[in-house]
């Protein structure tokens, strides 16, 4: 299956990206809980697949009356040679049981579920698979990075993500120990007709 866009030769110091996962890519959709549905958009700012890294901005509408629009900066780690399905960050307050419960809600999980439970399991050739598994961790509010907490909202948790490299679809489940369980995220790629973000150096 060659729909990932990773085959082009890299120039010196050029970061590995794909047709959907590259700086400037945008995704729109919703985040749902049992009681509410919120509009969400994501813009990718940087991608380095060789380092299993990406980052960007996540915008959510209507989460609180005081802050009708919240924008956070997040960083993503891609499951592969560098990161495993097991969440290794102690400060994220997850464990093996919680990881498996959240991963298990995502599409195509059955394809890797058995192997993922093995100690030190690593996804081989992860960039050549249709599904990329990730965690997206929000770090601070944009534009004021000094704001760490907001009444009625939380951005202290993280998302378990299943990304379809052929369609650009994003499925996720949000986790924070003090938030409503199993809030789901569904995003679709915004077609930019192949245009990439331009950067001007002065």
Automatic annotation (TrEMBL):
InterPro entries: GID4/10-like (IPR018618). GO terms for biological process: negative regulation of gluconeogenesis; proteasome-mediated ubiquitin-dependent protein catabolic process; protein catabolic process in the vacuole; protein targeting to vacuole. One of its GO terms (cellular component) is vacuole. Belongs to the GID4/VID24 family. It comes from Dissoconium aciculare CBS 342.82. It comes from the Eukaryota. Pfam families: Vac_ImportDeg. This is Vacuolar import and degradation protein.
């Amino acid at each position: 299956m060659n729909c990932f866009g990773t085959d082009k030769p890299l120039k010196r110091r050029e970061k590995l990206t794909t047709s959907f996962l590259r700086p400037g890519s945008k995704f729109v959709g919703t985040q749902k809980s049992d009681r509410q549905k919120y509009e969400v958009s994501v813009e990718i700012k940087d991608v380095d697949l060789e380092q299993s890294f990406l980052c960007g901005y996540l915008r959510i509408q209507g989460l609180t009356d005081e802050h009708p629009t919240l924008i956070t900066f997040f960083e993503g780690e891609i499951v592969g040679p560098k990161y495993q399905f097991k969440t290794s960050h102690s400060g994220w307050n997850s464990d093996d049981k919680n990881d498996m419960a959240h991963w298990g809600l995502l599409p195509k999980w059955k394809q890797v579920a058995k192997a993922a439970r093995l100690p030190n399991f690593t996804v081989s050739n992860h960039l050549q698979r249709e599904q990329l598994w990730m965690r997206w961790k929000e770090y601070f509010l944009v534009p004021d990075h000094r704001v760490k907490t907001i009444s009625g909202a939380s951005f202290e948790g993280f998302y378990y993500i299943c990304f379809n490299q052929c369609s650009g679809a994003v499925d996720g489940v949000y986790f924070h120990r003090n938030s409503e369980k199993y809030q789901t995220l569904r995003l679709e790629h915004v077609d930019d007709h192949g245009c990439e973000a331009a950067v001007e150096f002065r």
